[in-house]
Task: inverse folding
């Protein structure tokens, strides 16, 4: 059983993607935990769906609660979805297991959070955008790139934000499979579709009905 821990500050869209994938039997052998640095949508969702969760106090100068909680839950992968830079000791202790998802084709627009990279890409007239899954190191958005996707800016901003979220979830799953060297998604096939490296699971099983369930979660 692969244990994926989400460090959360917001509504937990990526965590909800993984949970819905488990419910729909699209990924197997995975269990989830949420560790939040505040009361937030991720915690409310976890409470309502019997997902192990913790709310802790965390600052780069106050790391005891995080280190204690991580030692307790023993994660295989940590997804860093909270709005803080991780301290160097945590990065060192979990090197190779800390993963981040960024909404730009890094190294472009590194250091921006949330949808800010998408907005910046539109304002700068970029022709292509996409998500990046990368390992976390001591610098901001500078860790080894694991996986990316790309799509053209030919749609309104709001539609790009939704498409970025969807492709980002698949890129995150792809990156985690790369780190673990194992398959989590059940339906295997080669998907091109402007992913690098190409997905080795069937993108089409994550259909519109699936994404609507994630959106409504």
Result:
């Amino acid at each position: 059983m692969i244990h994926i821990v989400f460090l959360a500050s917001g509504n937990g869209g990526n965590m909800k993607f993984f949970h819905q994938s488990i419910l729909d039997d699209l990924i197997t052998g995975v269990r989830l935990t949420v560790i939040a640095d505040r009361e937030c949508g991720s915690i409310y969702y976890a409470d309502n769906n019997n997902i192990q969760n913790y709310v802790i106090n965390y600052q780069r100068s106050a790391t005891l609660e995080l280190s204690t909680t991580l030692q307790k839950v023993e994660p295989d992968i940590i997804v860093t979805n909270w709005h803080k830079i991780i301290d160097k000791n945590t990065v060192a202790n979990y090197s190779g297991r800390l993963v981040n998802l960024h909404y730009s084709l890094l190294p472009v627009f590194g250091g921006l959070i949330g949808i800010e990279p998408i907005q910046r890409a539109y304002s700068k007239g970029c022709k292509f955008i996409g998500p990046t899954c990368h390992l976390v190191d001591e610098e901001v958005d500078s860790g080894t790139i694991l996986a990316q996707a790309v799509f053209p800016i030919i749609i309104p901003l709001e539609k790009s934000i939704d498409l970025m979220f969807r492709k980002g979830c698949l890129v995150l799953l792809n990156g985690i499979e790369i780190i673990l060297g194992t398959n989590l998604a059940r339906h295997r096939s080669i998907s091109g579709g402007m992913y690098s490296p190409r997905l080795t699971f069937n993108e089409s099983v994550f259909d519109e009905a699936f994404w609507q369930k994630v959106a409504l979660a």
